[in-house]
Design a protein that fits this description.
Elements (H helix, E strand, L loop, with lengths): L3 E4 L4 H13 L5 E4 L15 H13 L16 H12 L3 H13 L7 H10 L4 H8 L2 H16 L7 E4 L2 E4 L3 H11 L2
Parallel strand pairs: 1-2
Antiparallel strand pairs: 1-3, 3-4
Helix pairs in contact: 1-4, 1-8, 3-4, 3-6, 3-7, 4-5
């Protein structure tokens, strides 16, 4: 059974999960971009020094490039998530999402349209096609539907990994999903 990885490009915890999810799971998950801000039980935005220090510590433990926080973090991720939805539609969800996560949290860039187009170009998505997709009603509807479906499946926050009917959240979601897959649940 293929797991599903739910993420929002504005989440540093989702970034850390994204950097290890492909190697840690025995099956490649389906990457599903959702709007974390629209989840029914989402936690309030927390840009505290304590949260930042915890994320930076986990990044160091994972041997990920040191985090550089975007100046406006946490910010509005709708544009980036529309681009991620379009990337999924054309088979580039993983490449685009990793590029955008790295622009945001390794490069310290805000996820504005310029950064989104830079990440898209890095994974061979044509900037003009991405710019057009950002305004397409069908892309917005797909993002809204994915968010609603994730919430209906029990996703409360990102990162989350669903294995069958079971949803694993937060920092340990990758390891919990790997264990569930190994156990055959």
């Amino acid at each position: 059974m293929q797991p599903t990885f739910y993420y929002d490009l504005g989440s540093p915890e989702a970034y850390l999960a994204a950097e290890r999810v492909m190697a840690a799971l025995p099956l490649a998950p389906e990457w599903t971009p959702i709007l974390a801000a629209e989840l029914p039980e989402r936690a309030p935005d927390d840009d505290s020094a304590t949260r930042r220090a915890a994320v930076e510590r986990r990044a160091a433990e994972q041997h990920v490039q040191p985090l550089r926080w975007p100046a406006g973090w946490p910010g509005d991720t709708r544009t980036a998530m529309l681009a991620a939805t379009y990337a999924k539609q054309i088979g580039r969800a993983v490449a685009f999402s990793l590029a955008a996560f790295r622009q945001a949290f390794a490069g310290g860039r805000e996820l504005d349209e310029d950064t989104v187009l830079l990440a898209a170009a890095a994974c061979e998505m044509h900037p003009r096609a991405v710019a057009q997709a950002l305004g397409r009603a069908s892309v917005a509807a797909a993002l809204e539907a994915a968010t609603a479906q994730a919430a209906a499946a029990g996703v409360r926050a990102v990162p989350a990994l669903r294995v069958g009917e079971e949803v694993h959240h937060g920092e340990a979601c990758v390891e919990a999903a790997a264990a569930a897959l190994a156990a055959g649940t």
